[in-house]
Amino acid sequence: MRQGQALVMTPQLLQAIKLLQLSSLELSAYVEAELERNPLLERDDGPGESGAEETRAAAESADDQASGAVEPDAGESGSDFDEAGPVEGDWAREDLETGTASLEGNLGTEVENAFEVDHTAQGVELAALQSSSEGLSATSWNGAGGGGDGEENNLEAYVAARISLRDHLAGQLALACTDPIDRLIGHAIIDSIEDSGYFRAPLEEIAERLGTSLPRAESVLQTIQTFDPGGVGARDLAECLSIQLRERDRFDPAMQALVAHLPLVARRDFASLRKICGVDDEDLLEMLAEIRRLNPKPGRAYGDEPIQPVTPDVTVKAASDGSWRIELNVEGMPRVLVNQTYVARVTRSASTAADKNFLTTCLQDANWLTKSLEQRARTILKVASEIVRHQDGFFAYGVEHLRPLNLKTIADAIGMHESTISRVTSNKYLASPRGLFELKYFFTASIPSGAGGGEAHSAEAVRYRIKQMIDAEKPDHVLSDDAIVSNLKKANVEIARRTVAKYREALQIPSSVERRREKMAVHLSVN
Question: Taking every pair of C-alpha atoms in the chain, what is the biggest distance, in angstroms?
Answer without folding.
Answer: 106
